[in-house]
Design goal:
The protein has two domains: 51 residues; 137 residues, Rieske Iron-sulfur Protein (3-layer Sandwich), CATH 2.102.10. The chain is built from four helices and twelve strands. The strands form two sheets. Strands 1, 2, 3, 4, 5, 6, 11 and 12 form an eight-stranded mixed beta sheet that branches. Strands 7-8-9-10 form a four-stranded antiparallel beta sheet, with no helix packed on it. The relative contact order is 0.13.
């Protein structure tokens, strides 16, 4: 029988039951029977670990591509940008994606009316999960749930904003709180671009956007009334 030269001498000695390693085991008072018992115990433990893993996999399946994980949406061209005053749901500016349970906002860079400038604008955009694209436009992925009592909040073209039908909580097109009983602004997901496609990480939800004030409000308040 030839020697497997891919193994170290120590590994080969152990596998063949002789040599320096066998002598060391003898010196330590470990018999072959004890080593066999340990090997059997290790094997049983490994099998138990595999069985546990399989059971957990059945109970908690891989979420890849499902809500709770990163979800790749359509290419960026499928979400045309719009100015702040010319948004139309699922046509330009605001798009609903069922798989992510989110609204995708795509605002043109020259069509935004910002209340902040400079470093204050940059810092607040970063804190509120805005993404600036290479063409100067802006993106945000907003979770569909009203932060008041959990109703699905629709986007209303007539209000150029989100208005909850349950209790009247009102949010700007970028999810910033406007009025009503909601305790904070809409939650939003982390988003990015991969291979030209929009990617929303539904496992990363920012729930810390408070009601804005003069130092934190990014977009100007819509200049239209929004009836109940």
């Amino acid at each position: 029988m030839g020697i497997d030269t891919s193994r170290t001498p120590q590994e080969y000695e152990v596998l063949t039951g002789g040599g320096a390693e066998a002598g060391e085991l003898s010196r330590r008072g470990l018999s072959r029977r004890q080593m066999l018992r340990r090997a059997v115990g290790l094997s049983l433990g490994l099998l138990g670990g595999i069985a546990t893993y399989d059971a957990l996999t059945m109970l908690y399946p891989n979420l890849s591509g499902q809500f709770g994980s990163k979800i790749t949406l359509k290419d960026k061209a499928s979400y045309p940008a719009a100015s702040q005053t010319a948004v139309a749901l699922d046509e330009k500016g605001i798009f609903y994606e069922q798989s992510t349970k989110a609204y995708i906002m795509h605002l043109s860079g020259d069509g935004a009316r910002f209340d902040l400038t400079g470093e204050a604008l940059t810092n607040n955009m970063e804190a509120q999960n805005w993404v600036k694209d290479g063409d100067g436009s802006y993106w945000v992925a907003l979770y569909q749930v009203c932060v008041h009592l959990g109703c699905k909040v629709p986007f209303r073209n007539d209000c150029v904003s989100f208005k909850c039908p349950c209790h009247g909580s009102h949010y700007n097109m970028d999810g910033e709180y406007l009025d009503g009983p909601a305790p904070r602004s809409l939650d939003r997901f982390t988003m990015s671009f991969e291979g030209g496609n929009v990617v929303v990480d539904t496992g990363k939800l920012n729930q810390h956007i408070q009601r804005p004030d003069a130092q934190t409000r990014i977009l100007a308040v819509p200049g239209v009334q929004c009836a109940a």
